[in-house]
Specification:
mainly alpha; 434 Repressor (Amino-terminal Domain)
Length: 207
C-alpha cells in the first residue's frame, strides 16, 4: 500500500465534491491538519476513519487503498498489515504518555518532598502531605504500568519490565501488597474523620 496514492485519491474525491479540508475534517471529527497530512501522503487515516471517508465519497476502503485488483487473500493481508501498523502506533503513543506520566509524577513528587520539608520547618502539620504523596505514587505507578503494557505488546523489554518481572516473583511483592492494603485502610479511617466527610454525613442525615 502507498500512503501517497491514498492521499492523492482523497484529494481528488474531495475536490470532486467541492469540499474544503476543513469541511471534510468536520465530518470526520478530526483536524484539517490531519486531512492535510493524509493528502500529502505522510500517513494513512485509521481504518475506522477510512471507512467514514469511503461512505462520504461513495467509494470503498479497497479503492482508497488502491488494492481493488488484488485477490481476496491479498486484500485481507494488506488490511491486516494496516491494522497492525495502527496497533504499533497506538502502543507507542501509550508508551510515550506513560513515560510523560512517570517524569511529571516524579518531578511533582520531588517538589512535594521539598514542600513537606518547608512545612515541617514551620511546624505546619495540618496539610495532608502523606495523602497527596500516595496519590502521586499511584499516578507514577499508572505510568509504569502503561509503559510495561505497551512494551510487552510491542515485544520489547526495558529495565522497568524486567524489574517488574523479577519484583512480582519476589517475596517482597507480597509484603508490598499487604502494606498497601494496610495503608489503604489507614487512609480510609483518616478520610472518615475528615471535616469534609463529617459535613457530608450530616447533610445526608438531615435529608
Amino acid at each position: 500500500m502507498d500512503a501517497s496514492y491514498t492521499g492523492n485519491k482523497i484529494l481528488q474525491l474531495r475536490k470532486q465534491k467541492n469540499m474544503t479540508q476543513k469541511e471534510l475534517a468536520d465530518l470526520l471529527s478530526v483536524t484539517d491538519k490531519a486531512v492535510s497530512k493524509w493528502e500529502r501522503g505522510l500517513n494513512f487515516p485509521d481504518l475506522l476513519t477510512m471507512e467514514k471517508i469511503a461512505q462520504i465519497f461513495d467509494t470503498s476502503v479497497v479503492e482508497l487503498l488502491g488494492i481493488e485488483d488484488y485477490s481476496n487473500r491479498q486484500v485481507a493481508s494488506e488490511i491486516t498489515d494496516l491494522a497492525n501498523s495502527e496497533k504499533q502506533t497506538l502502543l507507542k503513543i501509550i508508551r510515550s504518555r506513560g513515560w510523560q506520566t512517570i517524569i511529571v509524577g516524579t518531578f511533582v513528587y520531588l517538589n512535594l518532598i521539598y514542600f513537606s520539608k518547608l512545612l515541617y520547618d514551620r511546624h505546619i502539620n495540618d496539610i495532608p502531605v502523606l495523602s497527596v504523596g500516595v496519590w502521586i505514587g499511584l499516578i507514577i505507578s499508572n505510568g509504569i504500568i502503561s509503559v510495561n503494557y505497551a512494551n510487552r505488546l510491542l515485544g520489547k523489554q526495558t529495565f522497568i519490565s524486567k524489574f517488574w518481572g523479577y519484583f512480582r516473583k519476589s517475596k517482597f511483592y507480597g509484603v508490598c501488597n499487604r502494606c498497601t492494603i494496610k495503608i489503604g485502610d489507614v487512609l480510609l479511617k483518616i478520610a472518615e474523620k475528615s471535616p469534609i466527610n463529617i459535613i457530608i454525613d450530616k447533610f445526608f442525615d438531615k435529608n
